[in-house]
Design goal:
single chain, 6 strands, about 15% strand, structural constituent of ribosome, rRNA binding, Ribosomal_uL4_dom_sf, Ribosomal_uL4-like
Length: about 210
């Protein structure tokens, strides 16, 4: 079992907690992390880009002028892509960028990302994040105490004081443990876990 320290918001060590090695101490495989991150990024794409083709543009279906004798190139349709106001040739159409990954692979990648934070000493376990008041300045002070700039904070339940105090800081993200994902863990330099979330995370990933 891996043992890490538990801190309060003043960065004072108050206890220790054991981490399940099946979640927080697994071999890290970069290609698995890459596969899951690419999948997450692809699934966030809206795929709504679209352009009107020649069959979608409103225009006369009558032949514009006679075939021969004008000295001009022959033309049949006002909606031709070669004419001004015509439809686009090979333009984008709505599509799905969805890239599915097996659940086992997602869980394995999540364990790898958590392991990486433990091995690089970028994981902080905090007893709780119940701030006494909604104050951005106080929250910034807490981050300075931990010497952290870019951080992901994971809580058990919604903590209004924490979320409202941190929402104006672009380098900090707060989420509940249910939304924990590989992309966000790797995106932010440090990971803060409320002590109460560890059991829930281990329970979800050890199935």
């Amino acid at each position: 079992m891996t043992v890490v320290d538990v801190y309060n918001l003043q960065k004072e060590k108050i206890s220790q907690v054991e981490l399940n090695d099946n979640v927080f101490d697994v071999p890290i495989k970069k290609h698995v992390l890459h596969q899951v991150v690419v999948s997450q990024a692809a699934n966030h794409r809206s795929g709504t880009a679209a352009a009107k083709g020649r069959s979608d543009v409103r225009g006369s279906t009558i032949k514009l002028y006679r075939q021969k004798g004008t000295g001009r190139a022959r033309a049949g349709s006002a909606t031709s892509p070669t004419r001004r106001g015509g439809g686009a040739a090979f333009g984008p159409v709505p599509r799905k960028y969805e890239n599915k990954v097996a659940k086992k692979v997602k869980k394995a990648a999540l364990c790898m990302a958590l392991t990486d934070k433990v091995k690089t000493d970028q994981l902080f376990v905090v007893s709780d994040f119940n701030l006494p008041e909604i104050k951005t300045k106080k929250f910034v002070g807490i981050m300075k105490t931990f010497d952290v700039n870019k951080a992901l904070i994971v809580t058990l339940d919604k903590v209004d004081s924490l979320e409202k105090s941190s929402r104006n800081i672009p380098t900090v993200k707060v989420m509940r443990y249910q939304g924990l994902n590989v992309y966000d863990i790797l995106k932010y330099d440090h990971l803060f876990l409320e002590q109460s979330t560890i059991g829930k995370i281990q329970e979800a990933l050890c199935l």
